[in-house]
Amino acid sequence: MKKFFYSFTFAFLMAILFTGVSFAQDTTPPTDDEVNAIASQLYCPVCESTPLDVCPTEACKDWREQIRVMLSEGKSEEEILKYFEAQYGARVLAEPPKKGFYWLIYLLPPAIILLGAVILLRSMKQWTTKPVAESTGTGEVGGDSSPAKDDYVARLEEELKKQK
Amino acid sequence: MTEETTNIKRGVPVWAQVTIWTFLVGLLALVGFGLNRARNPMAEIGEPVPDFDIVYYEGYEYKDKTQMKLSDLQGKVVVINIWASWCKPCEQEAAELEEAWQFYKDADDVVFIGVDYVDTPAGANEYLTKFNITFPNAPDLQSTISSILNRQMGVPETYIIDREGVLRHVKIGPFVSVDEIKSAIQSIE
Amino acid sequence: MFVEFGYGVLLVSFLVAIYSIFAAIYGATNKSASMVESARRAMLLTFPLLSLSAAALVYLLVNNHFEVSFVYEVTSRSMPTYLKVTAWWGGQAGSLLFWSWLLSAFASAVTIRKWDRDIEFLPWVIVICSTTLVFFVGMVAFYENPFTRFWLVGGNVEPHLFAPLNATLFTADDGNGLNPLLRHPGMVIHPPMLYLGFVSYVIPYAFAMAALITGRTDDRWIRLTRRWSLWAWLFLSFGLVLGGRWAYDVLGWGGYWGWDPVEIAAFMPWLTGTAFLHSVMIQEKRGLLKHWNMILVILTYALVIFGTFLTRSGVLSSVHAFANSPIGPLFMGFVSISLIVSIALVIWRWPDLRGETEMKSMLSREALFLLNNLLFMSVLVVCFWGVIFPLISELFTGQKVTVGPPFYERATAPLFAALMFLMGVAPLSAWGHSTLQTLGRSMWKSAVAAVVVTGILFVTYTKNIIALVGFFLIALVIFVTLQEFWRAARARQRAQKENFLTSLSRLMGRNRRRYGGYIIHISMMLMAIGILGIELFQTSTQGSLAKDEQLNISGYTLQYKELASWDDRGEGVNYTRAVVDVYKDGEYIGELNPRIDYYFDSQQNMTIPGNRSTLNDDLYVLLVDWQPVSNAGATFKVYVNPLVNWLWIGSLAFMVGIIFAAWPDRDPAEEPARSGVARSSKQTSAAD
């Protein structure tokens, strides 16, 4: 997602909530967009299936403030995501981390799809290369015309015939 | 009309049938077990609670230790209260829990442990200060503790574990009075 | 009174449905036509019985009978009557009754028809429909009972169906009220549409099973249920689209589809259903793929039950899964048994399901349809695995995980692109035989036009390579499909000496399924424009504004003017509504009113966006937060969603396409079957 930076004055609405936290403020406080850019990659267990940047619950507000605090402490995006994973478990990430058992989710579907494709290709080869007696499909609609003939016209004629 | 190669009705070869059934039954079993696991918490009433780590918040400790395992507390009655700073019903019982803790702490037979579910350090700090809570409190790191104990994935929930480490009592929702807490603890004596 | 009556007829319908199963089996095995007729009448009787039961429930809902726990949970005094009626499907117990009622209606509709030469299917169709009905009605009657009442027993309020000893009825003053998320018009008709789709798929499945059991494994069952599967597909598609629109209007996250498990649960039967729509054509035209069609219809049925279960069990929680109840294991058991029995039947009848002809070319239409099926199945694999992976992960690692949009988007995007390409090629290929040459000859004009369009977009609109590939495919499909209309109409015009429009309309009228299908393809492409737009070009920003302060995003300027908050006691809602002036490139273009509605009865907030919709983009403004002190300001989240309107335009066109294709013209039973093709399994060639 793209980040947009604006020069509007930022009303630090929620700061009152965090009197206990000391800020290592060297630059301007992080904008909502910077916070949301990270929050959109996280899922709070309290509102499942809704990304953190749009979840309206109290718990998620607290989380967004946590991101804001960490950003103002100069933490990088990666550090923040790591922190949340360590604190609340892998479920906060939008998809399982690519390690250990979790590889299964990334590897199994392509494996099955490939298997399906191979089976399909092999059986199609088998069907097409099998020596077949001259004409099989006698009655099918839009029957097989010789490849040289424009098959479209053949199909259409067939159709017109049917309509009469 | 066409080829007369064979007229035998060929069924599904045995190996294919075996594969299909193994796959199908395996898949159903997997989903079934997963379902069962997801529906039931790991700790049932009357059964030993699986062990877990407790790493206390800064400023909290139990017997001078800042972290321990549940099993370190065998021989004592353990009251585990799962709460969160964003949870309104939790506030209803916070003062009562602290009062009950004051009642029990000197006898050194009952331990209260607060477990903070899906919370931020700042929120936790504010809540604990506001209600002046002195019994040891720990964050639920990676939601491990709640995934073992929690019934409905809601807060607050309180669990009482007896001296042998067996789960004896579950309270879903807030306690309404100190007496209710006391009688819950006494019920397992 | 109404409670006892409603529950009473529910129980009677349960017993009647059980009777119809046994009577049908007995009648079929002992060749007793009178028993089958008796089973049919029992089946027909369930519909009025369930209607009465449902009417009793609706009566209770509308008349504020808060002693009934279901009524207490889903309604409140302040709700308007139409919402009280729709609260019927706003909770678990009620929606299961709704499901049962629909099923009995459909089953009755299908058993009323003249059976004539298909009479041997009848008992088995009854068996399948009644078994499904017994399962659902049993669930309602014994596990999720909407007629349970509150009783005061020794000072405690407890839910029981019948009065316990020494108990008095307890009536609450007011109910909880329907979840505000469900009070949106979209949500009022979204579940019925989805359920209509779900339930309609029971019918093709019942006929497929009847075909397997009786051994009449030709494509008769497909012809008999062709219209059912089209309507089922229509309702399911409509339900999905409405769900998307509802999410866009109500959930307040600037999107329409969040890849959450419940959405996917409704999407999966749609995938198999779509594959089925295509592959039945191969069986009808070429007599191939008989096994595969059976498997697809079984999968669809299993996924329908699985989908109902997922939305109802709370196993995989998500925005619309509210429930967590004991019915999970029952659903799981039912899905397992029906899968195992159906697969066993397919294996038993495997030799009778051999194909009747040969596949001759890798580029023939049937080959391309097979590829289409492979792609739909691939999307299904991704979705299914993504949905159940959290369960499996918790089982093996003890850790919950989230499988969110990035996973699905990455995995399905190439598959959808391939499907689009197929949509561009397949209409030009012929049944039986095509070559690269013939394909190329009919395609090159459209391809060139699509390249030109893409080139123009590259210069004027975007340099994003994914977007350009997407737009190329969209243009290709649209041109190819339009060209198909054009060529066929022209050819007919020349042959019949009519004017072009007459030709076109007659052509389409005579071949509804094909041209309805083409309309659907074009609509899909319109929808794809919207999806590409919002997925690739969405921008968003958030800011807290003091009065008259401004926020800029993608050429728009928003100025916060004022905010008002008031209670509407009659409706039981507190409204907080902001006024935001919108400027585009410095020019005033209107005001938007994002609001937050707070519902007193359920204590929930709803974030209603202020949305300005044009063909070019949507400006979607959410009120996130505000300061109670009047001059302090408010926080807004603003999205610009380019092209998203095409998604809704496409959806409408899509509905038109399906209705066009599904519109009854003549009874499919009267259509001549494929003639001259060997009916038996003379050939050894595997068709699939």
Could you explain how this protein is built, in words?
The complex is a heterotrimer of chains A (about 160), B (about 190) and C (about 700). Chain A is mainly alpha-helical and about 160 residues long. Among the domains of chain A are: about 15-90, Helicase, Ruva Protein, domain 3 (Orthogonal Bundle), CATH 1.10.8; about 100-130. Helix content of chain A is about 45%, strand content about 0%. Chain A has 5 helices and no strands. The relative contact order of chain A is 0.08. The model of chain A is unreliable at about 1-25 and about 130-150 (pLDDT under 50). Chain B is an alpha/beta fold. Chain B folds into 2 domains: about 10-40; about 55-185, 3-Layer(aba) Sandwich (Glutaredoxin), CATH 3.40.30.10. Chain B has a 5-stranded mixed sheet with strand order 5-4-3-6-7. In chain B, helix 2 crosses helix 5 (about 180-185). Chain B is elongated. Chain C is an alpha+beta fold. Among the domains of chain C are: about 1-180, no CATH class; about 540-645, no CATH class. Chain C is built from 19 helices and 13 strands. Chain C has helices at about 1-30, 35-60, 70-75, 80-85, 90-110, 120-140, 185-200, 200-215, 220-250, 260-285, 290-315, 325-350, 365-395, 405-425, 435-460, 465-495, 500-510, 510-535, 645-660; strands spanning about 150-155, 155-160, 170, 540-545, 550-555, 555-570, 575-585, 585-590, 595-600, 605-610, 610-615, 615-625, 635-640. In chain C, strands 5, 6, 7, 8, 9 and 10 form a 6-stranded antiparallel sheet that branches. In chain C, strands 4-13-12-11 form a 4-stranded antiparallel sheet. A 3-stranded antiparallel sheet of chain C has the order 2-1-3, with no helix packed on it. In chain C, helix 6 (about 120-140) packs across helix 8 (about 200-215), helix 8 (about 200-215) packs antiparallel against helix 9 (about 220-250) and helix 8 (about 200-215) packs across helix 11 (about 290-315). The N and C termini of chain C lie far apart (about 60 Å). The chains are: A mainly alpha (about 160), B alpha/beta (about 190), C alpha+beta (about 700). At the A-C interface, helix 1, helix 4 and helix 5 of A face helix 10, helix 13, helix 14, helix 15 and helix 16 of C.
